Fold:
Amino acid sequence: MMTRIDRLNDVELRAMRATVRDGIAEMLLGGLLLVLGVLNLIGTPFGALAILLVFGLAPLGNWLKRRYVHPRIGYAKRLQSQQPIRRTMIAVITALLVLVGTLLVLAWSFGRPVGGGLLVSHAVPALWGCIMAIGPSIVARRCRLVRWYVVAALFAIGGILLPILGVATGYDAISLESASVGGLALLYGIGLFVTFVRTHAVEEVSDAAV
Amino acid sequence: MPRCSDAMGFDEALLVATTLSGLDRTVHEPARLAILSVLRGFESADFLFLLHQTGLTRGNLSSHLSKLETAGYVEIRKEFVDKIPRTLLSLTEPGRSALEAYRRSMAEILTDLE
Structure:
């Protein structure tokens, strides 16, 4: 039986989901990762500088929201979650354990000693994948959105599997993973955005009475 | 017809009745509860967003917002974005506390009824 409290939680969750239904976050994250990944893969000297694009994401995202989203479903600014220090410490310790664990598992499975070579070729992509999975997992957990769990899983699994399968190792694996996951996220985001714009009409609201 | 007190015992029924009578009527009304629940996860939201999320009519939403503002639970601000007026609504601290107290009371009642 759905209780009144469940219904309240449902209302709150639906409101939270409404703010990420437009696909803008997927488009921006995907676009950035695709550009970074491709530039690093082709070895251009601008690859490292492309990280500066991250500063353009917030203004671009805000502009897209103002231009296409707010006139359709309204404006809402999310409450900043105050992450307790305990949770941050747990996240850092977990990341370190993942690093050490990955190194040990890889050393055991390949019969090679744990060293700098293995760290760069196999553990760094795995760790990068796990770190990149944190953000999408937080969004997925907060809004209970499956698509963000998929992005998180792609990052985590890709980071571990690419070097193991011999597709790419080290920084090449990071670039390849960024480009492929970024490309998928970008395409999916564009699809969501186009659907959102086509299915939501711009509304003129008179709120003068409030 | 079985009475509530027959099924759960006099003390429990009395406890539930006391808790129910202590509920904040401003928050308990379904439309206002929906408005407060939507605003709970946000720093601020505009009129159109609330209209979509609550499913209320414009007049209804407007009237409930006025009641919540009078109770001091919601703050209403007007601002201009690109020369277009926007009404921003946010939950005040007393509003947040009242909603949390309401949720706690409802949870207690449900526990007592089980």
Chain B is about 65% helix and 20% strand. The CA atoms of residues 40 and 96 of chain B lie 7 Å apart. The radius of gyration of chain B is 18 Å. Chain B touches chain A through 36 residues (CB under 8 Å).
